[in-house]
Amino acid sequence: MVRLLIVDDEKNIREVVREYASLNGYESDEAENGLEAVELVKANRYDCVILDIMMPILDGFSACKQIRQIQDVPVIMLSARQEEYDKLFGFELGVVDYVIKPFSPKELMARVKVAIERSKKPENNSLEFGGLVIDAAGRTVMVDGVKANLTPKEIDLLIYMAEHRNTALSRTKLLEEVWNYDYFGDDRTVDTHIKMLRHNLGPYRDYIVTVRGMGYKFEA
Amino acid sequence: MVRLLIVDDEKNIREVVREYASLNGYESDEAENGLEAVELVKANRYDCVILDIMMPILDGFSACKQIRQIQDVPVIMLSARQEEYDKLFGFELGVVDYVIKPFSPKELMARVKVAIERSKKPENNSLEFGGLVIDAAGRTVMVDGVKANLTPKEIDLLIYMAEHRNTALSRTKLLEEVWNYDYFGDDRTVDTHIKMLRHNLGPYRDYIVTVRGMGYKFEA
DNA sequence: ATCGTGAGTCATCGAATTGTAATATATATT
DNA sequence: AATATATATTACAATTCGATGACTCACGAT
Prior knowledge:
The structure is a homodimer. The first copy, chain A, is an alpha/beta fold.
């Protein structure tokens, strides 16, 4: 059974999409804001999430980030604003496709189908660096075969850095990518998390290199 | 230089797309049927092919198949018929995305951009000059295989000079570009950093050439 | 050969950056 | 609601870096 989650604050849009979804043999749940969506994702498994960007309470981008931390599910964005193209495809975010409103439900369904098809592809998502194994999909980190006790932020940070290994990343960049794009935060926050990460990586703490005047780098 | 191939039998469509492409800084070639497209792909390298489906002589699907045998290039399909969605995504064919006519050129360009981004192979962007290897992304410099111990300013300076090699750069220019735009500083500052750079580059110190009365030059 | 100008070098001190720990706030769990 | 856990902020010490100016050296024109 293929299950979709349709997230939009407009009821009629949800209903149209749902109807087409059922025509294609998909089951679907609905949420009318990001927060509801996140709650549903916590409780259920979905094959694809259709996510509006402009929503009250919790917007699509923020919701997407949270959803992806819970489930490795493809996300298709709905947008009324053509200007957002660039931002839409933060691949780390798991945004697989996007559709501009007003859209053709048929086209949306076709893209959903493709997204699901593509996500089925067995990907070996684990990054291995000697005795350090980072499973991005499973969000677990093994240090010499023992599961490391990392906090969510630490895992996010490590995954991002490992996926961009050998690249010096500024604190600002890390705050943007690992935290939120519009994060009002202190640079030193990154330092603190780096410190904890290093501590928790034990013998592999040296993979995280300080790049003076710049930020940090995962060096493999 | 990013190069597109635009394939459509309608001249005005090709022209609109081409115009938007050039607005985005892309170079583009045009073909008006599949056969022409295949010939062009044989002769040139492209970063992305935009391919109409319905064309005389050789249709989009067949052309795509042939193109992919010649070059590993992402293909974006243009279709007038919504019904073809399913067939479109034969991934073996390398169809990365599709757009339904009539389409928004902006959207098409956004999808082109994404397609190119995705297809990019992770390349090492390092500048190599014999035994001197400058990795700008990782902010490391190798001298005969050994990591050189450069300070941030030295790395900035070296990267800037290496990226503008064979150009004489005045101290003022360097202060503007490597330091701040409106830096209020002493010329001697540059000299000192050049000195340290040369020292740290060891056998490759001669890449940094003094241009008397002018400034410095990275000569490769 | 001499002089003037531009370049190289050096030591020093103040400024900027980072690591860490302590503390405060937010979030999740019971 | 209380507790535990996670995250953010702040402060401070330790370290490194960078700018400066005086001095010396090299070049080239006369």
